[in-house]
Predict the 3D structure of the following.
Amino acid sequence: MKQICSAIFLVFLCLSPPNLSLWADGPADNQSENVRRIPKLGIEVSEADHEQLTQEIVNLGELVQALRQDQREIVQAYLPDVEVFLISVFNNFTYQEFFHQREVEAAKQHLAMGMERANQLKQGKTPWRTQTGAVIRGYRSKIDGSVQPYAVYVPESYQQLGIDAYRCDLWYHGRGETLSETNFIAQRLRNQGAVSSTTHFMVHPYGRYSNANKFAGEIDSLEVLQHLKSEYRIDEDRIAVRGFSMGGAACWQFAVHYSDRWFAATPGAGFSETPEFLKSFQKETLTPTWYEEKLWRMYDCTDHAINLYHCPTIAYSGEIDRQKQAADIMEEYLRREGIDMVHIIGPQTAHKIHPDSLVEIERRLTALERTGRQRTPKEIHFTTFTLKYNRMHWVTVDGLKQHWERARIDAQIADQTLTTDTLNVTDLTFDFPAGEAPFDLLKPVIVSLDGQQFEAGRAKSDRSWQASFHRDERNVWKAGRRLETDLRKVQNLQGPIDDAFMDSFVFVKPTGQAANSLVEKWTQQELGHAIEHWRRHFRGQPRLLSDTEIGEVELSQHNLILFGDPSSNQVLKKIADKLPIKWGVQQIQADKRTWDASQHALIAVYPNPLNPKRYVVLNSGFTFREYDYLNNARQVPKLPDWAIVDLSTPPHSRGPGKIVEADFFGEKWELRPAHSTP
């Protein structure tokens, strides 16, 4: 495709934040040495279309740039609803991601829609906010500052000045290797898709492309929901998660990770865990490392099956669909927990939703809608493997004995007594907000915690009640929060490396030279790879600053992703002696383990010593790579909290080089002894 003209590039700089294919099947996608590009390169745009798009992008870009300088509150609040059309077309045009001529025509229409909104916003008007039917909205993501699209179908009965709250269904889309932003917007403007509604909101997150709504795609859904609730009257107790194919996989993981947020979940097809799906569907021979197997537990819904005790679930499969495996294995794991899963089967149906089955699904959903989400259950059954997912209704897990091993809480309320049994939990909080504490105000609440009894005070006059507990050095439960001041793994500061890319981050490039030439070459290559693949697979331009540009604002607001070594990166140099793994000119040292620094490099995540409330990451973007793009079930963390890379093996489609050592840090972010590694 022809080089984009300099005028467009200048417009893009002003717009940037500060510094449908089916599943890929078959053995060809199991060959890591011959990996096809995702997304593939699109078509060449004709001379006439190139000229027209260039001019229209420039025109809209200049207007958006002017609006960015307009400090009126309404302009700043709703500018993303304009930018979403410009940025999507600009990206697809610039990176050759038009895959058919009809997409070029759609792009022209989207630029016209963006221009119309821009002119309306210039006048202080936002008519799309009161529009019913299909509406494209945009929001600015906290992760990388990018503008991300989503589609919402607003019921005809909805009135902006009304008082009624509405049910809302989140619908997760299927795998689409050519699902560019332009294609997503065009599809959603054409129709609602497989499931539609005229009575309640249907919301379609883009999910940052094709990742089964994991990692940044997971945060996308949470940000979409937050933005949606700020704009429309959404009933908090009547939000459902739904999806089919890859969207079914997304639905499963949202159902088990955030079970207490939804009144129902309706996953269809897709996958619900990694290993068995890849063996059965992809016919792949798996040879995971010990830490990869542990990290499967982040997104393997089978391990979290008991959490569906709190989320009414209606699974669907086509009778002859190979992806029926997803619901079958969840049914098996739920049965082990004593729960009988509703599994609707489309007779003699392959990979689609049978119309009769859809009628039955909708009937059951309507019945569940009448009841809505249960806000304060008397009984809790909750499991997790990480503090990333640490809450179920009125129970919050604040500390684990060991990450990536099963933690379990079973709690129930009877009269004034709260009885709880725990596994692998060191710190927890019970929290009933105003109006929800089911206790007599005149009597103290008795807490029985793994057999220990506590008199934990009375509920307050607003019917709220809270109490925290922790285990001491003798493993005995004590009332109150832990007073420890040392570093400790807490929610959103618990690793692994990929977790740093689920919140605001900035790539920090070095201005100096690495101590060793091989390290210099490798760190520069990995920085380039991280930038390119973030854009390609999570659809954003990451913030990029040099090590000399990092100040108090960056330290307070962002996770810092540092590339280089302590000789080349000034920020890394400042904190090098405060990290548990020492990286010198001659060697890298982890306790008594050492590696030649001329042939090895360090990858790690750790609380930033300059601001322990944020991460610092060394020399890594997200950890799954090109081979894993071929099947969404592979898109799981590939590295734990730290790793040593042998640079004699070049980066490849499955890793940044040869990993010669890798491990998790302990619960106090300490190095674990070498013998703890299986």
